[in-house]
Design a protein that fits this description.
This protein is mainly alpha-helical. It has one domain: Glycosyltransferase (Alpha/alpha barrel), CATH 1.50.10. The chain is 50% helix and 6% strand. The strands form 2 sheets. Strands 3-4-5 form a 3-stranded antiparallel sheet. Strand 4 and strand 5 form a beta hairpin.
Length: 202
């Protein structure tokens, strides 16, 4: 990110803080600070919801940037919001429709160019997408996203940051632990029974 963009109030960062605070409270529920963590999580979530929910119902990148960002899928997986929260489901739908191509996922749209012309598919987010689909009980879709990511490895069996789906080549730094770790997590979770399907919104 360019320096002036790095200072923006990113929605995914705020929601990640909510997930972390909830995890702290759950890890030590009898510690006096647990209640403080829960209250702070609720406060951050309420403030973020007041400024960063798109009119379509999904989380948007920042209060002044209406785009969807695949990074917004992860906080809900880590406990910031339940699977059946309408914003969780709307964000998943928006990412699938606007950032997905052939079951590869891109981080966000840079401009009006086709996704593949701006950058490679972001392999970390493909695994996160698979986890998000799995959490909603969409098993077939979850496996499709996972298998696309799994098939993007290099001849060494390792993964880079991105995958050029047109040239069928890895792009970016190699290897990347942040790609391998969620891929392993996704493989383990998809081997388990899925969560019950989320309740319909409304």
């Amino acid at each position: 990110m360019r320096p002036h963009l790095a200072r923006r109030p990113w929605t995914h960062s705020r929601l990640t803080c909510v997930a972390a605070l909830r995890a702290l409270a759950a890890a030590a529920p009898r510690v006096p600070h647990a209640d403080t963590c829960r209250r702070l999580a609720d406060t951050v979530l309420a403030h973020t919801a007041a400024t960063a929910v798109h009119t379509d119902g999904h989380w948007q990148r920042t209060p002044d940037d209406p785009q969807v960002d695949a990074a917004l899928l992860l906080p809900a997986l880590r406990g910031a919001l339940p699977a059946d929260d309408p914003r969780t489901r709307a964000t998943l739908t928006a990412c699938r429709e606007r950032l997905g191509q052939d079951h590869f996922l891109y981080r966000f749209r840079h401009d009006d160019r086709p996704l593949a012309e701006a950058e490679g598919a972001f392999l970390l987010r493909g695994s996160v997408m698979a986890l998000a689909e799995h959490r909603q009980g969409h098993e077939v879709q979850a496996h499709r996203w996972f298998e696309r990511d799994r098939g993007a490895r290099g001849v060494s069996g390792l993964y880079a940051e991105e995958f050029d789906i047109a040239q069928r080549q890895l792009r970016g730094n190699l290897p990347r632990a942040f790609v391998h770790a969620p891929l392993l997590e996704t493989a383990a979770r998809l081997a388990e029974d899925p969560e019950p399907p989320a309740r319909p919104a409304g």
